[in-house]
Here is the input.
Amino acid sequence: MDGGKTVRTKKKAAICMTALFASYFMTAVMLLILALLLYKMDLDESKVAAGILVIYIVSGFVGGFLAGKGIESKKYLWGLGVGVLYFLILTGISAASGRILLQEGFHIFTTLILCAGSGMIGGMLS
Here is the structure.
């Protein structure tokens, strides 16, 4: 068995987890900023929804960019993977909190495309 291959695989997994952590850190910071803007400026629902979409895109991009920088091969695939993982964890947390409804199928698909696509673009541009 190739011990070097195992080490490389563990290193890639660690890089992806770090990129994913950075994505969620970015999400938390931007959600706090959005909450502050909502409190101070009394934003309407459409502006809050647009802000959340921007948060998905920026967070996915940051995760994909960091994954691509760290792994340095097939960057777009690693960025895509981090974007999809970001979406899956986001969806799991939303489902656990009771926020996902069956009627939101198109919204869920759109969110998947945004997270995966921004992660892939982040990986490509890294």
Observations:
- The chain has a mean pLDDT of 88.
- DSSP finds four helices and no strands in the chain.
- Residues 69 and 126 are 5 Å apart (CA to CA).
